[in-house]
Amino acid sequence: MTASAFIHRFEPATGAGSPPLLLLHGTGGDENDLLGLGKMISPGSALLSPRGRVLEHGMPRFFRRLAEGVFDEDDVRRRAHELGDFVAEARQRHGIAAPVAVGFSNGANIAAALLLLKPEALAGAILLRAMVPLSHPPEANQLKAQLGGKPVLLLSGQADPIVPASNSAQLAALLSQAGASVTHKVLPAGHQLSQADVSLARDWIGPIDARAA
Question: Which one of the listed residues 18, 42, 49, 105 is annotated catalytic?
Fold first, then answer.
């Protein structure tokens, strides 16, 4: 999978010591959607922002779904591997470290799938309104060598009409059992992002910035 297979934006780092970010938009978004969010969360980071290659009624997504909340899991697996290959090629091309994924909604779901299927592709993840992407993920003991200790911030909305609270809690447990260092917070919000998401993500990534420096 070459970088040209994904329409994408890349913005080089403007400061030293900040981890690169992989920005993954929600349904109907594109490679420009989360650039501003990335700059707010981690000023100075290199930004790698691909556009999802699946269209649903003309709206870009990162994988197919059969209905709202019902995923085509074969496609999830295939697209996660494609995305992982793209990240590896982009890292080589641009000379960047493994990125921290910042995904919203559909983008958060593909980021979660990437953590489970190709954990070596990411240094960590900020998952905004994510759901469990796979009903039969790899066994936790198979993931711990590569996922073990990687930081993950999961921010859920208490009034989210799309992601049930039980589902986001299940995702947090799944990633924790696989060895990730998961911080899960439920915010007084719906599916859309709030200022609290930005503030929490910025505070959470700060220690990663310090370690990278």
Answer: 105
